[in-house]
Write a structure and sequence with these properties.
By secondary structure, the protein is mainly alpha-helical. It is about 75% helix and about 5% strand. α4 crosses α5.
Amino acid sequence: MFKSLKSLFVTTEEEQTAAPAQPSTSSETSAIEANTGNEKVAQKAVDNTILDRLLKAIEDNNQAGFDYLEYRRSLKSLAALPMDEAIKFQSAFATASTMDVTLEKLLASIDFYKKVLLNEDDNFKKASKEQFSVNVEGRLKQKETVNNIIKEKSLSIQKLTEEIRAHQAELGDLNLAIETADAKIKDTTANFNQALEVLISQMDLDAEKLKKYIK
């Protein structure tokens, strides 16, 4: 049933093989029939998965009796015949009329299936909005959070870098102060030892002379 329903709206692989060469379509798309008349109208390639979902909704809501779908089936059965489009529509309608189908009923049936598709459109938009909220808006918020974290840590790194440079400068001053103080202490120590040595030497010399000259 589903394959039969799909064949009412898309060009099947068998029809593509039998028909004159046309631009090929992807295995993931199907060509929607533009009309069933003699005039050649460009076909539109649509995604098979989405198309199947929409056709499944129509199938699930198929009205009892002869309605637009049956009329569409009758119309397509005339597609290969050398008739004007108007005659094809009239012939298919003549078949429908034998089952007490009026133009008003057919148009009402079309409106019914359009409402089915528009309901699917509402569901699709709702699902898309939810997906957008989770996968786009949610991630945009996460992106903003991560950017703020990066900014904060970059500022922290900058602050730490400045502090490290300040400490390195302080360390350089300390090293210079240490070297200066050490040199000064060593120089003072040498001077002290030299003065001490002079004085003690003089005292030792005086002591020897005292012992020598004074009995």
